[in-house]
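Loading example: each entry is read as four labelled lines plus one structure line.
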Amino acid sequence: MKTDLIRELGPLAFASRLRRLSDQLSHDVSMIYRDFEADFEARWFPVARLLGRQSPIGVTEIAESLGYTHPAVSQIAAAMEKRGLIRSRRDRTDERRRLLSLTAKGKSTLAQIAPVWEAVRECTGELIRESGQDFLQGLAAMEESLRRRPMAERLQTRLDSGSEVEIVPFTRTLERHFESLNREWLGPILPLEDNDRRILRNPSAGIIQRGGQILFARIGESVVGTVAIILQRPGIFEIAKMAVTTRRRGKGIGRRLAQAAIDWARQSGAADIRIATSPKLKAALALYQSMGFTRTTPDPAWRAEYQRRTIFMTLAPPRIQSDSTEG
Amino acid sequence: MKTDLIRELGPLAFASRLRRLSDQLSHDVSMIYRDFEADFEARWFPVARLLGRQSPIGVTEIAESLGYTHPAVSQIAAAMEKRGLIRSRRDRTDERRRLLSLTAKGKSTLAQIAPVWEAVRECTGELIRESGQDFLQGLAAMEESLRRRPMAERLQTRLDSGSEVEIVPFTRTLERHFESLNREWLGPILPLEDNDRRILRNPSAGIIQRGGQILFARIGESVVGTVAIILQRPGIFEIAKMAVTTRRRGKGIGRRLAQAAIDWARQSGAADIRIATSPKLKAALALYQSMGFTRTTPDPAWRAEYQRRTIFMTLAPPRIQSDSTEG
DNA sequence: CAAAATTGCGTAAGCACTTACGTAATATGA
DNA sequence: TCATATTACGTAAGTGCTTACGCAATTTTG
């Protein structure tokens, strides 16, 4: 047999090794279930077991308890219901929910396969002991580590180290990032309006050519954030479409973008710098406030561009920022 | 958040946890690759790396080195070739083989993503250290344990313990096992002939109703082996279609079946007990020899039933088994 | 108290592998 | 030496999850 490169690659192929091990184990367990003749699949076990101790219970609840996604449970439940192992009925007090419980057949099947899962428990335990480590303990620790700090974030930080965030103005090559960053950011939170779509698709025409600017934040080669400064009327600039890619949140990139946008607007002779934002974007709201923006009543033209719930803000002029002496 | 039952189930859901961890890690790594902008997928890495150090090299060889199946490599190679990262040509000395190697673009891409896999190595290492165990060591030990003794076998043994092997005669309920056991056993080794198919499909008509017998080996509830005794002509029995399910090999079940078949034939007045077998089935051959069967020249009728390469054997009569005094 | 957001669930499609199977080229063996 | 294995490889389909998305029912909110 050849050298197993995966092994040699060590940490690099760690995920593959875990997957292989998992596949091997579940394959073998399935085989045993299969020739135990019970019309029961190994992967149903966690659901069955849960229903055995707590029922009736809804699909999403099961998913949470097991750490699966709800479609997984939905699929397993469908299969089990077809075999007559579980039964379901709608929750009277909440018609969306489907409450699952074991049927008599389900209970007896569960009892019938009890020896199998007893064997699985013992053999897995034996295997784990043979590893010579406290493997379950280690596994739990790793899961916890990842929960605290996901792999993506770790990798990101490490790849970023050495490269500083820099803010650069619009270029043709950067243009496409404006749309993708905004979609990534806004997509799941707010449905885009037609107006938004048009601007995102062609920011050059909608913003740059009308005397505005688009700034980008980059770390090394990757573009991680963007902000638009739109010239509404001479001397009046609106800061809009600010977005920072998910994995770089909380590193002050938003603040740096906002500051750069303000600076650019002032240098372009801004008498008024405005922002319109959704009340949902709490973090952004807090950021703007901390930078000196205050809520205001929009003029009708501006008001008309946005939905009812929008929050409108303007920036107080620079002289009163550090000093609170008023007129 | 609800109690994570998977955790609570401990060893029982061990495989699921491994899978989840693996999925999480590879998902995150893929994301990073994706926004590193290189047209490169994380899962190609092992193949690329291998080609980087050793090329050209065939698909199957790669699969063996990585511990994947060859279709996996075939698919990855197809994708990489489409992106122009690798190139392939047929092996002149063996036109079946396709030799793969990195293109210039492939090499430069590999160099370009070097920082990413360096980060992956470091972060994974960090994660593993955070587990507080020698996780890689434990993983290797577990892989080795499983290689020595696969999970299926462990489970089987444990489920069998307490139940003895018993040999039982044909019943209608057992009938279907005759076909499935023989298919499991013979399928991958010998292509079935029409003759075989007919007998397997309806053993009752082909064997029992013609004065033969079919015996089954059971352990507890499961049927793990079978053998047929066919009445060829009065006083002449052929032992055939002996099969033991894969995971119970090497436990003397074959021998017990063969012995039971011989006993049954003798009690039914056998003057001649015969076996026809393929030279491929070394283990069976050795078994028959050890039980006293010796090679013989078949009579024409018997000869005609089998392929050219078949080995024909008969059993010497019982009286000369333990004592070698000759007439 | 409506409009809007959220929630519970199902279906479809994707993912990264696997098994199953077929074909052509090479090796084997009476 | 020629039929019979075996091997290298590809394609198709399966597996057991996931993400993406959509529809109702319920809850929240201005």
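Chain A touches chain B through 82 residues (CB under 8 Å).
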